[in-house]
Design a protein that fits this description.
8-stranded mixed sheet, single chain, Rossmann fold, about 300 residues
């Protein structure tokens, strides 16, 4: 592990949108002379899980991360969780921050958000880095409808998920080294429990992204994985990524489920100036397990002047 990097001052911001607020975090002071990095988390997480990545990027960038709709302190509509809804939120953030030539980093479904928003604001992003985006093409024969039974089981388990704990410490103890949280840096697990839960006067806490909300998101993602997604606004929701104009780096990981590598391959085929790289020794939650590696790769990618995206 690298030497500890002191975390810059983290500030809370709010972006107003037509259907409710989006909460953002900013690491460091606003500085128009420095480039911006915008970080977008995956399903079930929150903005502060980027703390360690942001601390390292803040040496080169003004860093922002948002709580995606349904997460953290952001808006929580009843069932507006289509791919296009999340992309609209990224566009709202881009406009509110007046982004131009920024770096965007998205993890999992957050990577999909970024890719779908980019064509709508082509001058906002100079480079895009996504980690295992949840993207598919319903017209590709290699999509996997046989995943449907497993996805049904996942939604059944989600419905039984524990949503409240008597204390912050009880939640941390419950999650530590369990499931998707295995291998997380302890400070990032603490940050997740702090910001992903409502904290009550009696010390108890309750999950902000409830199983009902997360299931509404996952149903769209699972449909994409199965190759049956046409989006609630019609046709293929991923077609627009073929209009992305900036270099895009797609990362996959060794210990993720095979479907993530398949979906990354779809993104690579659909995004014109894209390149794909594989990270050994890590899994889907690499941003919380080895944030130094992600931050270092992002900085190299930002400064890379070599030709990019050759097929």
């Amino acid at each position: 592990m690298s030497a500890t990097v002191s975390t810059p001052v983290r500030q809370h911001l709010t972006v107003a949108t037509a259907d409710g607020p989006l909460r953002l975090l900013r690491w460091g002071d606003e500085d128009r002379t420095r480039p911006v990095a915008l970080l977008v988390h995956g399903t079930g997480f929150c903005a502060s899980v980027w703390d360690a990545v942001a601390a390292r990027l803040a040496e080169d960038f003004v860093v922002y991360a948002l709580d995606r709709r349904g997460h953290g302190a952001s808006k929580k509509p009843w069932d507006a969780y289509d791919f296009a809804d999340f992309a609209d939120d990224i566009v709202d953030v881009i406009d509110a921050l007046e982004l131009h030539d920024a770096l965007a980093i998205g993890h999992s479904a957050g990577g999909t958000d970024v890719l779908l928003a980019a064509p709508q604001r082509p001058h906002a992003l100079r480079r895009i880095l996504v980690i295992e985006p949840t993207m598919a093409d319903p017209h590709e024969p290699e999509q996997r409808p046989e995943l449907t039974p497993a996805h049904h089981d996942t939604l059944e388990r989600l419905a039984r998920r524990r949503t409240s704990f008597p204390s912050h410490d009880a939640a941390v103890s419950r999650y530590r080294e369990r499931g998707v949280f295995a291998g997380w840096q302890p400070a990032l697990l603490e940050a997740y429990v702090t910001d992903a839960f409502d904290h009550h006067p009696d010390g108890s806490i309750s999950l902000r992204c409830t199983p009902t909300i997360e299931a509404a998101m996952l149903r769209r993602i699972f449909a994409a994985m199965e190759g049956s997604s046409t989006g609630e606004r019609g046709d293929n929701p991923f077609r627009s990524v073929g209009q992305i104009e900036c270099p895009t780096l797609i990362l996959t990981t060794e210990h993720s489920q095979p479907i993530y590598e398949q979906m990354a391959g779809v993104a690579h085929r659909l995004v014109p100036q894209s390149s794909i790289e594989h990270l050994d020794g890590v899994g889907h939650a690499v941003t919380q397990v080895d944030p130094d590696r992600i931050a270092a790769r992002a900085v190299r990618f930002w400064h890379d002047s070599e030709p990019f995206g050759a097929r």
